[in-house]
Amino acid sequence: MQSAGLLTAEQLTIVFGNVQELIDVNDKFTEHLQDSIDQAFDRGDEDLLTVSIGEIFLEFVNMLPAFQTYCLQQSAAVNMLNALEKEKELLRIFLDVSQNDNTALRRMNLRSFLMAPLQRVTKYPLLLSRISKATAERHPDHARLREAKSRVESHLEHVNTRTKQEGATWSLRSFRRDSRKSREVVNIEMREMSVRTVGWARESTRFVMEGPLQISQPADGQWARKGSRALKFQNVQSLLMVHDKSSGKFAVLREPIHLGNCVVSADPECDDTFEVLDIRREAFVLRATDKSRTQQWFRQIKRYTRDLGPWRKRRNALPNIMINTAQSRS
């Protein structure tokens, strides 16, 4: 269309939106699924019982914001296409001829093709539900299938909310009867804001944990002796995300804490809290709603921080590696 002078590059961008991103996302999903099928055949699993559809969809959920972007652009795309067809007779003739004479188009008009991604993504919950019903409860993928269905539904409900906020005249079919936002919908909003803040690509971002934490900044590392009761905590929604190389509801509390510059530590005398020390800047004491959740956060964050060796008994919150380095240089 652009080479024929029917549409400018800007008009094409409005009409087709981020369709190339959708193509890339679906190619990646298809490739992952095909790899799993090939591996099953290599193991002699001709019934494909070892293919974890639920696990694949859970990894694919992080790609759903690409569909959201496309959905939010649809009203502008349709309006632009309607206006252009009225203004440009050659464009209207081109679309009519293509629809009737090109067998690959199956006599579908351009608007039908533009709606196809939306129609596809709304079928995923039903597809996952049917696969889940056909999967034995003892199968390791059964729970993941149900979780994937729930998370896809939450994303679709989030898209509905956004389209209403944008004043669109249409929306995806609603998948939840209650008007309250589910926790997953809230988490979706936080993920979107966090990815924009750090500037990471969606496809290389993995969300490890999320949920409420309480945060405090103690003075001079005295919190261990006085105990957590002496600290003033602030409630925050927290998200642990990693960058995999192999204004809205939320506002940024502070600059992101880059775990590559941090040491994480838990004091035996304060098992309901843990500390994240940015070796170049400051320290933070964190805790969750209960000790079990606190320990879960601690283990996950510790996994992604720098391995600076064991901590010595507290003295101004300095890790052993700093002491050992100083001794080796003397």
From TrEMBL:
GO terms for biological process: positive regulation of Rho protein signal transduction. Residues 206-306 form the PH domain. SMART domains: RhoGEF. Residues 1-162 form the DH domain. The keyword Cytoplasm applies. It is found in: Cytoplasm. Its main location: cytoplasm. This is DH domain-containing protein.
